[in-house]
Amino acid sequence: MLQCRPRPEIINCTPTKVDRVAARECLKAAADTFHGIKEGLVVSLPKQCGIDVGFTFSKDIDCKNINIPDSEKKNGEKEKKNVEKEEQIARFGADKEKEISKLKELFEADCIAEKQKANQEKGRADAMVVKAESQKALAEDNCKKFMEEKRCADKMSQQLELRRG
């Protein structure tokens, strides 16, 4: 029984117009290899290959010049372009995901650096507060000493006045 050489390729095709166009081209090449065979076998070639290609084979067919309708070619091209666009969108999405991931990493690194900087500033501020508090305590001690000395001086002054008077 006559077999189409590219049969596995055609059988595995999904039924889109792009694949039908490819299958037709495949059948053209296969039919072209069968010169001088019985017309019935040539006519049944598409059926044997497992696909309806939308045109009739005959003994006298010019396999290399079978015309595929322009509308079908254009539809096939559109489908290819749509697939390409979807692939580009998917790649673009993946690239954007990577870019977003990098930006997140940079942002997190910046946040960590800012937190460290803020902690350092807080540490400096805390040190200044401690220093100010110690200076305040020292000033209060000095003030107490001064007040005691003043009281002492006032008492002495009173005692001197009492002795004079």
Automatic annotation (TrEMBL):
Signal peptide positions (record): none
Family named by the database record: Belongs to the plant LTP family.
Domain of life: Eukaryota
Coiled-coil regions, chain positions: none
InterPro entries the UniProt entry points to: Bifun_inhib/LTP/seed_sf (IPR036312), Plant_nsLTP (IPR000528)
Protein name per the record: Uncharacterized protein
Gene Ontology molecular-function annotations: lipid binding
GO terms under biological process: lipid transport
